[in-house]
Amino acid sequence: MPTTAILGLQWGDEGKGKLVDSISARQDFCVRFQGGGNAGHTVYPEGKKIVLHHLPTGVLHKDCINLMAQGMVMDPFKLIDEIAEVEGRGLKLDERLFISDRIAVTIPLHLTLDMDRESGNEANRVGTTKRGIGPTYADRYDRIGVRMADLLDETSLREALQRAVNVRACQTDGNAPGVDSMIKPLLEAGKKLKRYVADTSLLLAEAIKEDKRVLFEGAQGALLDVVQGTYPFVTSSHTTGAGIPAGVGLALKVEDAIGVTKAYCTRVGEGPFPTELTDDTGHKLREAGGEYGATTGRPRRCGWIDLFALRYVCRISGITRLAITKLDVLSGFGELKVGVGYEGHNQPGLPADIRAFSALKPKYESLPGWNDDISKVRKAADLPATARSYLRYLEEFVEVPIGIISVGPEREASFETNGAPRD
Ligand code: IMP
User: Fold this and answer.
1) Ligand 1 centre from 126 Cα, in Å?
2) Mind listing the pLDDT tens digit for each residue in 55-67?
3) CA of 117 to the centre of ligand 1 (A)
4) I need a surface site. Which of 115, 162, 421, 422 has the fewest CB within 10 A?
């Protein structure tokens, strides 16, 4: 069976959750490989909204096995609440959820460090989700992190917490949580989570050997990748296709890599966004698209789609087909613009230097829009002619075929297509 991945191609919030939800219904395994509670995958099973932060979206399908692999970070208290919410809907997770024993654990100290930095000197802010993501990953790479396995053994946990507190002491003002306040609740959380803990890379190796259908569920988007994205205004994990092998602990290659992009573009938090619209059109996009964060409720910055950046991230992420989401939101805009490059920028890639990135001035192509409500369309050929030509332009520029189009939040509002519709 081919392995499939669903990966965001912008700054997150591309509508991956809904696609993962419909595709994971046909999968044996659904695997999260990076990020943690900073993600907010909104899905509407049986019409009722649920936002998943840590749990793979496959938990909503009773025959799908879900792995939280080692590349993730996990806040045990938030995860326990999330498990309770899903189980409260009658979806039992025993034997269906496995948490890597090597997963990096967010401890209360990480939340304090993230909050302090975000509320301190403006020059040091990233605009994070304040879920402790950066400090948790930093501690992993500084080799002072707490891992899931530590939550199951008091001596290991005490040692790990003491190391983190000692090393980070110089970063805190003395009010940060100490070992004694953290250890008991963490051990209790460990007891609750114990039954889900496993060596997920071995489980995955076995599944692939047995030819199971496996889906890798990306969180955030390629432009938030800790190395390839708009650094330092990024998250702290590897969000591109390159993050999958290390994130799951298996040197594998994904055959069907679906890259998800909105038909326009949004971003939350700080950092450059060349095609951002701060005028009435940007406002109209935000209201039409309901662009408010699923995790934090923050209004999202909105703008036209940036095809130049999209082409670049498709190459580095190994994308084999595109999913275009929220096409319906573009109805009624008259003229549509698409970013096709930047003034004076003559390289195929994006600048590594943040000042150079922030200075990029987009070049646009204008394309005719459409006024019809397309939210009830269920096949590509039924889209208005101008919507079809918008998709053809996008596909030809990015050089990756369109495989999925989405025109609304319901499961049936996403349909497959064999490339952009031809006339
Ligand atoms: P962090 O991941 O909480 O450290 O935040 C770092 C940056 O990534 C901030 O700009 C966040 O707004 C952004 N970010 C993190 N997770 C998401 C997501 O799921 N969707 C959109 N942006 C995100």
Assistant:
1) 9
2) 999 999 999 999 9
3) 15
4) 422
